[in-house]
Amino acid sequence: MCGIFGYVGNKTNAATIVFEGLKRLEYRGYDSWGIAVVPTASEKSKVKSEKLINTIVVKKKTGKIGNANVNDMPSSSFAFGHTRWATHGGVTQTNAHPHLDCTGRIALIHNGIFENYEGIKKTLVKKGHRFTSETDTEVAVHLIEEYRKTMALAKAVQKAFNDMAGLNAIIVIDSDRNQLIAARNGSPLVIGFGHQENFLASDAAALLPHTKQVHFLEDDEMTIVGHKGIMIFDAKTGTKIAPKVQKLTWSTRQAEKGTYPYFMLKEIHEQPDIIADISETMISPAKRMTEVIRKSQGTYLVGCGTAGYACMAGSYLFSKVAKRHVNWAVGSEFGYQLNFLTKKSLVMALSQSGETIDILESVKKAKNNGASIVALVNVLGSSLYRMADHKTLIGAGPEKAVASTKAFTAKIAYLVLLAYGLAGKTKEGQTVLMHAVSSGKKVLSSLSLARIQKLASRLKNTEHIFVVGRGISYPASLETALKIKEISYIHAEGFAAGELKHGVIALVEKDTPCIVFAPNDEAYGANLAGAMEMKARGGFIVGISHKPHEVFDYYIPVDDACEATIIPNVIVGQLLAYYLAIEKGLDPDMPRNLAKSVTVK
Ligand code: M6R
Fold first, then answer.
1. What is the CATH topology of the domain spanning 3-248?
2. How far apart are CA 82 and CA 447, in angstroms?
3. What is the DSSP string of 25-82?
4. What's the pTM?
5. Which fold has domain 258-443?
């Protein structure tokens, strides 16, 4: 959720380095931002004011970074910054991070929720600490200030961090020394190793222009990052830990927009190549994973949001192709229904970021029950990736738009390979995926894009859109509706087409837009029947199908790709959502209220 970026090194433009780092983290979603620098010695000597000596200079703003700059900040070789997604306290400049202690010599940024902050705040107020914000975060910096009175800074940070209940990551700086002191439990933090400079970030992708050598901090690890060296130790015991340096595989170019106006459009267009790549290169990992599934007694798919709909689609694929019963659950609910798990159970957790707290918590509970964990994630070194017994990177490359697109279809492609692999028909699975590639490319042709954009222009002022489908088109409907809601703010609902008569159809009136998935599968006739029922009530029927039909008022062709048709079908849904946002003048990459990785409950 919140983005964190810290720099310490031999360059003197630390504020700009951090500012650019925060811009690379914008995709995570935020409502305010802030940067703190410790001015260089020469900068301090230029300033007559006593006030600047030994103090930290802070700049904070509400809203997006947009055209802002940090030219007004002093030269510095040591700075950190934060993009805030408000939890405790409204979106105000004062509530934005960094927060300072009473003396202005210690600054802190924080990701997570400091659950027991209220009691600690009362004690600190009694001791004379003055608070300026409504945040839980500010309590942490005053707590460190209090402990600092009797111990060294690192010890004070360690003690304060261990007092903080909840899942938190903090970074602390002090005006007397050029060191970033950080600790994490739950919320991600990555150390980047440079030459005569080092970095800290909440997300490895933000480090790409500087370094690919990283250490992902584990839960309850603490670090002191200086420009020449890094120390890592256990935040509970103080025992030193050797860094586990890993090399990032993503390129800087992959994490940039290139010629596309938005990341979302770029990521939608990347899908055919990603699917082709998965079909060619993922056979061995898929084979290993099918063996793990085969040996398990009870396999469960878990994911949140879009990843949850990929899980749901997976349950249809495993049933139809592999004749195997695989349950699925949304991450936030799985924790309440996993008492049946045993040592023989297998939980397959799907997540783009690998940091979604609801997934991490469910997986921890599943592990406690003895279940094995398979992680299907997009981010190397993410918490889920590290926690899993068996792991696969889905290889979709950095996904920066808040709305997940290519990570969804990459997961589906991998699930297709697994389902066909379990059925002993890997080659057929690859062929089916290649059909999805060519069908997807056709959906992305200029003619097809124009058709979808025209539809968006027609629907842009509508209040409600219904999306229906049966079988695997049910998760396609849910995913399409989610995309529309997220980025166009139009109320869209996905339904199992068979449920229409059980209540939903009461909502359909003259001109209500009803999107119907009708691919060439066993549900084709039933999907058309649903379309007819809605049309009879005045619905405006948008048919997404391999062939036109008279019931469709608007037709979007999608070539049949057998069991993988959900891939091009959902690409249509993604494009419709994208163009609806564009038609409404909205930024599809950064929808309101949403964050890319949901690291708080
Ligand atoms: O990183 P994850 O795949 O675990 O994220 C899960 C959901 O938060 C995510 O899919 C969310 O629903 C997206 N905004 C969907 O576009």
1. Glutamine Phosphoribosylpyrophosphate, subunit 1, domain 1 (3.60.20)
2. 43
3. TGGG--SEEEEEEEE-HHHHHH---GGGTT--EEEEEES--TT---TTSPPEEEEEEE
4. 0.84
5. Rossmann fold (3.40.50)
Structure tokens at 378: 């997009």
CA dist 586 → 257, 373, 577 (Å): 17, 39, 11
Pairing of strands 326-330, 299-303: parallel
If DSSP codes are grouped into helix, strand and coil, which group holds residue 540? strand
Which atom, in ligand 1's list, is nearest to the CA of 407? Answer: 3
Judge if the beta carbon of residue 575 lies within 6 A of ligand 1: no
Average pLDDT value over all residues in the chain:
93
3-class DSSP state of 230: strand
Q: How far is the CA of 598 from the centre of ligand 1 (A)?
A: 8
Establish whether domains 258-443 and 445-587 are of one fold. Answer: yes
Q: How far apart are the C-alpha atoms of 128 and 428, rounded to whole Å?
A: 71
3-state SS assignment for residue 361:
helix
Confidence of residue 52 (pLDDT cuts 50, 70, 90): low
**Which residue numbers are catalytic?**
2, 596
Q: pLDDT tens digit string along 146-158? A: 999 999 999 999 9
Nearest Cα neighbor of 241 from 252, 230, 257, 255 is 230
Closest CA to 380 of 183, 213, 235, 229: 213
Q: 553: exposed, middle or buried (C-beta count within 10 Å: 0-12, 13-18, 19+)?
A: middle
Cα 19 to Cα 26, 67, 94, 597, distances in angstroms: 11, 12, 19, 20
- CA distance linking residue 436 with residue 564, whole number of Å: 6
pLDDT, residue 48, reads 53
With the most atoms of ligand 1 within 8 angstroms of its CB, the residue from 598, 599, 600, 601 to mutate is 598
Q: Are 88 and 134 in contact (CB under 8 A)?
A: yes
CA of 335 to the centre of ligand 1 (A): 18
- Domain 445-587 in CATH 3.40.50.10490? The answer is yes
d(CA 597, ligand 1 centre) in Å = 7
Which residues are paired to 34 by β-bridges? 60, 82
Cα 492 to Cα 107, 496, 510, distances in angstroms: 43, 14, 17
What are the tens digits of pLDDT across the range 307-345? 999 999 999 999 999 999 999 999 999 989 888 999 999
